[in-house]
Amino acid sequence: MSPTSMPTIIVVVPQTEAAAIQAIKSVDKIPSLRLVLALPSRFHRLAKDPLIAPIFYRLVDAGRLELAIQISNPPLLPLLIDTDEAKRTLPPGTDLPIPAYRHPEDVTQIVARTRADFFKSFSRAPKGIVLPYGAVSTSLLELLQRLNMAWVVAQYGLAEKAGVYKRKGLILIDGRINDMVFDERVQPEAMKRFGELTRRLQSSVPSAQKPEDSHKSNNNSELLTLNSGLSLPSDPQISVQEIDRDRVLGGVAWTSSDWSRWIGSSQKNAAWRWLEKTRDDLDHFKNSGKASIQRLDMAFDELMTAQSASFFAAIGDSSKPELSQEREQEFKATLSSVYRLMSENPPDNLFAVDNGPMQPTVRASSTTVSWVPSSLGGLLTFHDASGDDVSKGLYDFQQMQLVVSSQSLDWTLTFAALPPPTAHIDLYIDLNGQPHLGTIPLLSGHDLEASSSDAWEYAISIIGTDLKLYRTKDETHFEFDSNYPLMTAGNRMSFQLPRSSLRGNPQRWGYQIIVTDAQQAVQDLLDPIDITQADLLKAIQSGERKDIPFVRVK
User: What does the DSSP assignment read for 183-239?
Assistant: First the structure.
């Protein structure tokens, strides 16, 4: 059977619950529409919303929606199995990491955990998987088959068009990002294209293609096939083509002809070596007899965060140098967190490979700091010394708590007593600890600034009941973003920001809180590490310095 006569399978990979609900409602509205829906386990609304859940489960049980797992914060799975897999995708002579990263057990753990979380969220067992970035290898297919996956959607490179194949009993759906795979992970406009397709399906007649669009998607020709019915991977009579079990598969991705986006340059290869060294040390810790199950689980969670393909794509990307530096620093901070969870310091030479020594990303603070992780995020607490404000109680900041969840950032500031309504309370956030990436001057009204390594990306200003969020524009300028409501109770102020309003990981941010009076004289701040608060305020008041260091989670 030729690939052009193969069954047509629509695959939707949404990144928001709103996009997933759009797909569900489209299937419910259009009787002829059937599709694969790849979901992350965090989409709890689909299973709990009284308006959505009945529709969702009815379509699944009726065989019109077939569920697949979607790995969150996804790695490039074939490279976790063996980075030498990239040899056949890159030009001859391309350098690869030495030693190679070879940890197929990591892929087993990632897939098994994702599938278990999926079942816990939706009470349905997923039948297949849509591979991140469409990247696949023969070794990965064999591993997935051992994990009892029935079918795998990926970019196999088998034909000029999408098709359905079988290898050793495993169904292979060779998708194309511009055909019937709508993956928001790699194409932000994917759901817009899906919406256009469903509108045309609903009309039952494919729209005429405009001449000027003839170079774009071939969706119109595909719609001719859709009129005769759509298939799902588990349909008993689905027609597939058996392929040679010895045929080499993969080596490409949805939007690229090789894997050079993630491996092969000196900087990307160095990052793989840093990951391999950390992974090796984590294995030693695991077998040392000193590891508690809780700390070991937390350390492996951090390692899996570091395995994200987004880090390797950004590192060494000369087209976006600032983002590349920021992501590299975040990657290093994540690996450093693995060592902290092992109660160890990172080796002095861990990052001294190809890219030179690492800039400090994690610093201690004389302020007491704690981070308590949770299934949804975590609780960050800074305790500042009591009674250390200039006015001895009138402006005495004592504690900041930040509750992090997938939806919101909930802040509480505690004082000895609420400051006067004329007080200015400014909270600064530096995302990355990277010199000059952010704004150095502090908010207007005084001549203070952050050090270059603490240049801030966000600032929250509170005056009376007015709360404003600012964001950086460049090294010397910032701009107003939004107003948010402020609540006060007793000696506490609290407010909530949407999680989407501040990017990055709060556990790795740098923080500073400065309380000034109506004349903008500093009365209290979050105690830094390199100088006592009393000496810092004295130096500021005398004009000897104007920079205020930030504090980071230890």
Answer: ETTT-TTHHHHHHHHHHHHHHTSPPPPPGGGTTS--HHHHHHHHTT----TT-TT--
Range of the domain at 126: 3-242
Claim to verify: residue 199 and residue 298 sit in the same structural domain: no
Cα–Cα dist 265/246, whole Å: 30
- Integer Cα distance of 313 and 321 in angstroms: 12
Q: What pLDDT was estimated at residue 354? A: 47
Q: Do the strands 65-69 and 128-130 form a parallel or antiparallel pair, or are they unpaired?
A: parallel
Task: Look at residues 504, 499, 498 and name the one whose alpha carbon lies nearest to residue 485.
Answer: 498
Domain total for the chain?
Answer: 3
Give per-residue pLDDT as tens, 339-395.
989 888 888 888 875 433 333 333 333 467 777 776 667 888 888 877 778 877 788
- Residue 164 confidence (pLDDT) above 50: yes
> Both 17 and 77 in a single domain?
yes
Residues 73 and 145 placed together within one structural domain of the fold: yes
CA-only gyration radius of the chain, Å: 27
Q: Residue 459: which H helix or E strand, with range?
A: strand 458-463
Phi, psi of 148 (to 5 degrees): 65, 30
Residue 297: predicted pLDDT: 87
Smallest CA-to-CA distance from 233 within 438, 456, 65 is with 65
User: What phi-psi label fits residue 133: left (phi over 0), alpha (psi between -120 and 50 degrees) or beta?
Assistant: left
Q: 297-321 pLDDT, tens per residue?
A: 899 999 999 999 999 999 999 899 8
E strand segments, 15-108: 35-39, 65-69
Of 469, 467, 458, give the one whose Cα is nearest residue 550: 458
Specify burial of residue 180 (Cβ count, 10 A radius: 0-12, 13-18, 19+): buried
Closest C-alpha among 534, 247, 235, 520 to residue 366:
534
pLDDT (tens digit, 9 = 90+) per residue, 93-148? 899 998 899 999 999 999 999 999 999 999 999 989 999 999 999 999 999 998 88
Question: Are 328 and 372 members of one domain?
Answer: no
